[in-house]
Design brief:
Blueprint lengths: L1 H22 L6 H14 L2 H27 L18 H23 L2 H7 L12 H26 L17
Helix pairs in contact: 3-5
Length: about 180
């Protein structure tokens, strides 16, 4: 009975989203994205897309999202919002932080990103445009991933503050402001 109710609720939500979607205009960016996606599939292997494409998207989005925070820390007006106002930022500290970030991204995260291809193959995740989920499914999946990732970081960060491992692993994290 409970299973049937949850299925009915999900079906109702799906129908509601489909109904709302029918009123929305067509996305003018969909065809250019489709063309670019199909060009990528025609010219690169799945391994190249999953590995190097993921790396490029990760690095570009990471550093673009960091630009506002980097700029704000050097604006005098923004100093009142600093969490650690007694620790001023310097270019030397920023350079050291950037070198550490680049090391972590290319020697720790890149090997993990290399597993993306094998993950997509194991779970049979398609690459074709026609098999892409609808926009609302992608939004829900991104939201779910953000919640899981945030919970993961929270609990892992708490674990890294344990007295037995803090000074060996996590102390580097608190070296930067």
């Amino acid at each position: 009975m409970a299973m049937n109710d949850s299925v009915n609720i999900l079906n109702s939500a799906y129908l509601a989203v489909e109904y709302i979607d029918s009123f929305l205009p067509d996305n003018p960016l969909q065809q250019p994205f489709k063309n670019a996606w199909n060009y990528m599939l025609d010219n690169y292997t799945k391994f190249q897309i999953a590995t190097w494409g993921s790396l490029i998207v990760h690095e570009v989005s990471y550093f673009l999202l960091c630009v506002p925070g980097f700029v704000f820390q050097f604006i005098p007006f923004m100093q009142k919002y600093k969490i650690q106002p007694d620790k001023p930022e310097t270019w030397e500290k920023q350079w050291k932080c950037l070198k550490t970030l680049l090391f972590n991204h290319f020697f720790i995260q890149l090997p993990l990103i290399c597993g993306t291809y094998y993950f997509t193959e194991y779970f049979n995740i398609p690459y074709e445009w026609e098999q892409m989920p609808r926009w609302y499914v992608l939004v829900a999946q991104c939201f779910g991933c953000a919640v899981i990732e945030d919970a993961w970081h929270y609990f892992l960060h708490r674990l890294l503050h344990h007295k037995r491992i803090y000074k060996y692993i996590h102390k580097v994290h608190h070296e930067f402001v």
